[in-house]
Amino acid sequence: xxxxxxxxxxxxxxxxxxxxxxxxxxxxxxxxxxxxxxxxxxxxxxxxxxxxxxxxxxxxxxxxxxxxxxxxxxxxxxxxxxxxxxxxxxxxxxxxxxxxxxxxxxxxxxxxxxxxxxxxxxxxxxxxxxxxxxxxxxxxxxxxxxxxxxxxxxxxxxxxxxxxxxxxxxxxxxxxxxxxxxxxxxxxxxxxxxxxxxxxxxxxxxxxxxxxxxxxxxxxxxxxxxxxxxxxxxxxxxxxxxxxxxxxxxxxxxxxxxxxxxxxxxxxxxxxxxxxxxxxxxxxxxxxxxxxxxxxxxxxxxxxxxxxxxxxxxxxxxxxxxxxxxxxxxxxxxxxxxxxxxxxxxxxxxxxxxxxxxxxxxxxxxxxxxxxxxxxxxxxxxxxxxxxxxxxxxxxxxxxxxxxxxxxxxxxxxxxxxxxxxxxxxxxxxxxxxxxxxxxxxxxxxxxxxxxxxxxxxx
Length: 459
Known about the structure:
Layout: H1 54-59, H2 120-132, H3 136-147, H4 157-173, H5 177-184, E1 196-197, E2 217-218, H6 222-235, H7 239-258, H8 264-288, H9 291-300, H10 309-323, H11 326-335, H12 340-354, H13 357-366, H14 373-389, H15 393-405, H16 411-424, H17 428-446
Antiparallel strand pairs: 1-2
């Protein structure tokens, strides 16, 4: 029996029917080839870009005031024409209590207290500060406190979805994916009519009655929607559900691209969204272990004009190496029109896949010059791994320690150095704790922002 706190919008129409589709990019006719003359003049702010990634969504400023001067972050996000009662997402029983036991002692900070009706604006600003400092676990806890504090209006969908995106993203970034997956179940069926605004009825003016009407608008931000679909597939232990849901979203993107009411700016944004969905389909297929289907889907994306050739080649090479098809990966790297630096990085990966660590070290050494210092640090870290595979543990340890002393502390670096400590010393725990203290001191002195956990140092 539904309670008063868990009311839903009455279903005024059936859920969107699932249509048969080959895949997100398998349409024979390019929906982008609609003549420009058939599209109405854009009414959206110029220069705005779509937000596709949860990480980009995470770094936007949370604004308490919703003044008319605030510009939308997405050029195709439409305002919700009908309020939704989202009180079922404000239930404290949904959100798990978080602990800092998995964070090394030098990086622990106390959780912030829940806000009151008088401090909600200040609390949202504090949440922005936590995000800017990459204190993801504290931000996840604080976002959950705000959601369950009783200070939010249940119909303020913009703020509720914003806080949910922060909560899920911070849980993932702090290594609590399973908790985020369990909490995402509370969203229930994202394809139900509850999450859609009925489009305004248009006068029939085209030959195709279906295309002459606007496509229903989903009230949830697109990035959060994709994130929630993946988390739900993990929470329900059903990866096929996640891939099927992505195919439905891809079909919806294609409907927006084909609609005559879609402006040129909107068409560009929906095209980028379709590309994002396609990449997530590939990732979902890889997680399912269906590498053949993943490679065919990724191969079909090569024909898309806006796909970066170097990024696509790197993704395909990594997938081929995952499949064990080293010969095909090598042939692809040789035939690709890549810059020398990009080709050198790919060849080093292939060499490691073939077990030729001398060649991998040679390729990595040749790729150090003339690159960004952060990229050079990653190359040197890969070089240390190549030395480790060659049995040169001392040389590998020296390289990694030099990087840590220079102020670098990304996860792969600390994990690899901790592994070498385990292999080369009986006092590995003391060495690891010394590294933790050193990194913590560097963070205080340089203001370097990064989230750390015990797993980053193999503690």
